[in-house]
Design goal:
By secondary structure, the chain is of the alpha/beta class. The chain contains 10 helices and 15 strands. The strands form 2 sheets. Strands 1, 2, 3, 4, 5, 6, 12, 13 and 14 form a 9-stranded mixed beta sheet that branches. Strands 8-7-9-10-11-15 form a 6-stranded mixed beta sheet, with helices on both faces. Strand 12 and strand 13 form a beta hairpin. It is elongated.
Amino acid sequence: MPGRTVGKRNRMRIVSAVAVAASASLALAACGSTKDTGSGSTGGGGTGKVGVILPLLTSPFWQSYNDYVPKTAKSEGVDALKTVNSNSDPSQQITDIDNQLNQGVKGLVVAPLDSAAIEAGLKQAERKGVPVVAVDVAPDKGKVAMVVRADNVAYGTKACDYLGAHITSGKVVQIMGDLASVNGRDRSEAFRSCVKKKYPKLKVLEIPAKWESDTAASKLDTLLNANPDIKGIYMQAGGVYLAPTLQTLKSKNLLKPAGSKGHIVIVSNDGIPQEFEAIRKGEIDATVSQPADAYAKYGMYYIKAAMQGKTFQPGPTDHDSTIVKLPSGILEDQLPAPLVTKDNVDDPKLWGNSVK
């Protein structure tokens, strides 16, 4: 049993260590791109393997994100494993999370497929003390260090305002994403609400397409048969909806170039090179550029910070975004997502123009 002298020395060491830790926390809080509270260490203490789980790879957007991951991991000093593709299956995604945890990863960067279902995977990670950063989709529940995402409500509103500015009255279609995802819900409700409030002469027709290209094509074909007088289309994901939409319109002789009689005004979301080319050709009119490069960069930035025990507070960042607290209490870094039209489609700063 240790004597009193040893106990006193231990207490002195503890007090000294606490003082050093407090000084380090204050130093950390004075720098960085956000307010950093410097909480206790979690994960691998700032080091260790990081698992990166993708929702799918059938979309050019996610293919681009996948290409950015190893580059940004290297630049951010993160030891990222080879990415895992959940192939549009929420159940598989939970299995993928479990497999990564069993491999001993110290951090996870996950793009959730289902905002509710992902909670099971987040609980697995929390039980093992592994921090998680969610990219693109916010979970309804569960513990994450940060959500890296653009403002999806703004996506729907920007699309609404663009169509409203170019169509005085008539039918417009929104090809929706999966309503099990907060992204699909945010974009759909924002578009619907904006039209109702600001452009009451527009009639919204809706296609629930679940981020599936075949579903979008078949339902759009059916809808056009019954409504050949459609004047506008809002596609919530150009990566999966662009090709089938253009092909369906072309098959019905409804794909008219912008500025010509009978042109259907089309606004998209994603910012992939294929959308930019369609804008240049006059096939579509605009898209909202969802930042695939920044998703990868700040996914890595925040998982490294979380593994070092850092935490953040709501407010502006040093990378032109704002951290907000969601109703669930989760923090989300809302990255900028500009509207792209023929006026700025060639801007070299847009990630879609840098993809080779």
